Amino acid sequence: MKQYKKLISFVCLIVALVLPQLLLAADLPSPLDTLDNIASGERGPYKEAMDTDLMEIIGTVISLALGLLGVIFLVLMIYAGYNWMTARGEEDKVATAKDTIIRAVIGIVIVVGSYAIWRFIFIRLLFQ
Predict the structure, then answer these.
(1) For residues 68 and 62, what is the distance between their CA atoms, to the nearest angstrom?
(2) Based on the domain organization, do 41 and 60 belong to the same domain?
(3) Do the Cβ atoms of 79 and 101 come closer than 8 Å?
(4) Is 72 found in the same domain as 25?
(5) Dist. CA 21–CA 17, nearest whole Å
(6) What is the four-CA torsion angle of 30, 31, 36, 38, rounded to 10 degrees?
(7) For a Cys staple, 93 with which of 1, 87, 88, 89, CB 3.0–4.6 Å?
């Protein structure tokens, strides 16, 4: 049974990391094109770093962190829902699943709220 849980966790992780790339509607270059550009010297980690400014780097880091937190929230919700559905009437497991859901929602509200407040203040300070 533990083997299946590990396999299911691994498959969910792979799907969570790969599925957004498959569903993007934008015309993005393939990873092989990107590797060809790096190999030819047209684009690389140092050349691109010289063209970007600090604001873009910070924005990218914040975007990646929020995306990761969104994935963690989704995994917690699925995990808590699975535990709730397989509780079979055991009140302890149901209570644990409810606590996990409540804490995950509180966490995502705090993260999104703090990002919204930070963005509002930052834009007001920068553009006024």
Answers:
(1) 10
(2) no
(3) no
(4) no
(5) 8
(6) 120
(7) 87
Say whether both 64 and 124 belong to one domain. yes
Q: In this structure, how many other beta carbons lie within 10 angstroms of the beta carbon of residue 78?
A: 12
Calculate what percentage of the chain has a pLDDT beyond 70: 73
Q: What is the pLDDT of residues 2-44, one digit of tens each?
A: 787 888 888 877 877 776 666 654 555 555 555 555 555 555 5
User: Residue 98 is part of which domain span?
Assistant: 53-128
Token pair recorded at residue 17: 């990391």
Phi then psi for residue 52, to 5 deg, are -95, 150
Do 126 and 94 share a domain, yes or no?
yes
On whether the pTM is more than 0.70, the answer is: no
Q: How far is CA 95 from the centre of its chain?
A: 27
Same domain, 84 and 40: no
**80, 101 contact by CB (below 8 A):** yes
